[in-house]
Automatic annotation (TrEMBL):
Belongs to the radical SAM superfamily. RlmN family. It comes from Alkaliphilus serpentinus. InterPro entries: Aldolase_TIM, Methyltransferase_A, RlmN_N, RNA_MTrfase_RlmN, rRNA_lsu_MTrfase_RlmN/Cfr, rSAM, rSAM_sf. The lineage of its organism: Bacteria, Bacillati, Bacillota, Clostridia, Peptostreptococcales. GO terms for molecular function: 4 iron, 4 sulfur cluster binding; metal ion binding; rRNA (adenine(2503)-C2-)-methyltransferase activity; rRNA binding; tRNA (adenine(37)-C2)-methyltransferase activity; tRNA binding. The active site is at residues 90, 331. This is Probable dual-specificity RNA methyltransferase RlmN.
Amino acid sequence: MIDILNFTSEELSEYIQQLGEPKFRSNQVFQWLYKGVKSFDDMTNLSKKLREELKSRAYINRVRVEKKLVSKIDGTIKYLFLLEDYNIIEGVVMSYKHGLTACISSQVGCSMGCSFCASTKGGLIRHLKASEMIGQLLAMEEDLGERISNVVIMGSGEPLHNFNEAIRFLHIVNDEKGLNIGNRHITLSTCGLAPEIRKLADLQIPINLAISLHAPTDELRKNLMPIAKRYPITQLMDACRYYLTKNNRRITFEYALIKGVNDEVSHAQQLAKLLRGLLCHINLIPINEVVEGNHKKSNNATVKTFETTLKKNGIETTIRREMGSDINAACGQLRNSHLKNEE
């Protein structure tokens, strides 16, 4: 059976025409899919013959809400989603003045092993299909009755490790016949897979790229992020410069501040030196403390001093506002607690 939600509109058009139907039928099917229908029977402007044909050949892959938590502090919503194979993933919806921003997962679990992240504690189970990434957005919109206007691929998983499905997702979510979310309203976050950053650059898709850096030197970064042993900072920076030559869009560097580890003024000075001359922005993140880990959050004064040091050195910097702190809104936390309760 074919997962019809995993088709791009072009692929769906070709498939529908192979069934002997006119091309315009594919547009009707595509539009129904992104209205959130759960059955081909609900596609009421299709002939009964076509509906029966589709039912015999394909299925609509649906992501279901398993659990929902709403922050009493800022209204942030954390979802646990149930997939068709009963795996669990998670997503977050945050409300801003410019609309709803959804943070979605790209894998079930993660293999990157970053020491400060809950997502990776159980390892990688499998990649998500584009349809399951789309399905998170459809489930959120159905539950909230509102449109998602911005997407961040920054939940559980490393999207560039799931490169082909992540790119397929970008093509589908941007399609004006579907969810029609503009590329400039989409951010993809990677922990630094240098070859894949180059591949992404060559596609010249004008999304926002975020790099999880978290350290200004190889020695420190290797202790926090195993991927740094494969791709040292010089290789990562070269990939970022290549990306900028292809896209000329500002790169965001994510930097999670960990008490006594990477939050000293000397680290800020090293970071400023590393990034000087790049079209970039630093997003400082007071780390979310993970139950299974031993890293502690930097205090507010340290975070402010770090920000001030970077700005004095000419690096554009902001401090990310914490959201959903009362509902375990950081990547992997809710999923991990849910899995423990299931054991």
